[in-house]
Amino acid sequence: MQNDLIRRLLEQDIRAIAYSISIVENSSQSSSQLLKQIYANVGNAYRIGITGPPGAGKSTIVNQIAKLIRKKNKRVGIIAVDPTSPFTGGALLGDRIRMSEIGSDTDIFIRSMASRGSLGGLSKKVIDAADVLDAAGYDYILLETVGVGQSELDIVKAADTTVVVLVPESGDSIQAMKAGLMEIGDIFIINKSDRPGADQAAASLKSILMMRPHDEKIWLPGIVKTVATETKGIAEVFSEISKHREFLSNTNLLLKKREKQTKNRIKEIVEEYISKELWNAERESSLDSSLGKAVLGKLSPYQIAEELIENFKKDI
Amino acid sequence: MQNDLIRRLLEQDIRAIAYSISIVENSSQSSSQLLKQIYANVGNAYRIGITGPPGAGKSTIVNQIAKLIRKKNKRVGIIAVDPTSPFTGGALLGDRIRMSEIGSDTDIFIRSMASRGSLGGLSKKVIDAADVLDAAGYDYILLETVGVGQSELDIVKAADTTVVVLVPESGDSIQAMKAGLMEIGDIFIINKSDRPGADQAAASLKSILMMRPHDEKIWLPGIVKTVATETKGIAEVFSEISKHREFLSNTNLLLKKREKQTKNRIKEIVEEYISKELWNAERESSLDSSLGKAVLGKLSPYQIAEELIENFKKDI
Predict the structure, then answer these.
(1) Residue B87 sits in the same domain as residue B130
(2) I want to staple B134 with a disulfide (CB 3.0 to 4.6 A). Which of A160, B45, B274, B291 is the partner?
(3) pTM (two decimals)
(4) Residue of A nearest to B296 (CA)
(5) Does the distance separating the beta carbons of B273 and A299 come in below 8 Å?
(6) Do B237 and B286 belong to one domain?
(7) Which residues of A touch B314 (CB under 8 A)?
């Protein structure tokens, strides 16, 4: 069954891909089994993270880039992290809208993942899902997230090239800086650049970026003005992505970047496992029942912590 | 030696207090010993968190509140988390400026803690330091942090009452919302309210807060306009704090709040310990040496993770 699934996944069967991502989303035991088995086939896809504030036009840009990639006869997978609540079913809705826009091209695979209440483990699941698409032979994987929150930033950090989408409105780039987007962008897009202030926004962005160290071994991010709804500037965006890819490969930085990403990922897998073992129902309730004494000063938090640690050591 | 330190700490000896906080800052074995021994004396101080964007005037407000508390013949401890880099020595400088402002009153104790490079463990150390001041008999503890970043928010969440300081400039409250300050504030201050727009800022803030559920069991945050440099509004701030304290105590929410905070704290202590054991030098370097194989697709991150987990289980 599992072997049959993997065979079909490697044969690029759409239903096997969708089912595999569902396994990965549920993050069960069979998820890590699956990921171990496909891993030899992972590593060929180029991963592009696309982020920015809400309303900047990320989805439109992602769709346009995907269409461009298809014109080059390459296959493209899209994972869009949808920050909707679990109640609205936003992720499903998103799938439909996107699908109808791009059409029924089978060499484009699109999946929305909702960030649901707790963000814990989201970036892990997205990266796992990207591995599934990678093994299924997609040449490019686009990871789209709203640029707010640590977990979203973790996702784009897992990309080879990170694209930050902004709009001309003043203050937007300052927001981006505050949100930590300035540090992670390899390419910046000023979208909706038919609006007033686009040139000025690009210029002030450039002056900020020029303050970063840059030389032949440190990439200086490119800035591209787009009107995504009219496909304006999309070819330039893709050309910047290709330039960045070439830069990473020429400087051997792609390998280094992926090593660092893999390190973070392994640590996250280990820590999630340990945390689950640590905070099992028994220790959770033992902790809860000691809180009253702690608040009344009868037991120190450190003493309670030590007892929990001792119990964990015996248990694991 | 340790017992002598604790005796002097409980006798409110300033040098013993300062030395104890240093022990706690270094977070060594003796730190948890110390905290366990003083814990029976902890729990009487009322903890007030003060946060807001940079430049809102938090330090001035903290100093003014401290002076007011002293006029009521109560003792006050201040922990100011200084977001300066380790290179500027900002925390030390901060101590001096503050000291000279408030004078040489020995019933005010002030300590700046720099948030230095990594923020890991900062909130834990600040809460530990607050326990030291609590045991040393300070009636009020003021925890001042810049409202950016998770660790800073964790600190104010450890307070009984959280005060958010804003200024009238438009957009400021929207920033506060984005940064998660809106959810944590029990009291909001519009400081520098002699500037234009103060009334409007207060009104729009109020309309946002009114959208939160509130009844006799859910606190509706108060809004106070201040000009801290002229001591205007400070008495009102303190009166709001007292009202909130009374509310928490009447509804039994203070105990519940402290239980929740203690739970988070114990979890953090346990997790920090486990994480140190987990990522010891040996496993760190074993992880590093496997990254090359992982990136080349020869070893799955899940396989490497499992080996690290097995090794940890045998080891602990």
Answers:
(1) yes
(2) B45
(3) 0.80
(4) A43
(5) no
(6) no
(7) none
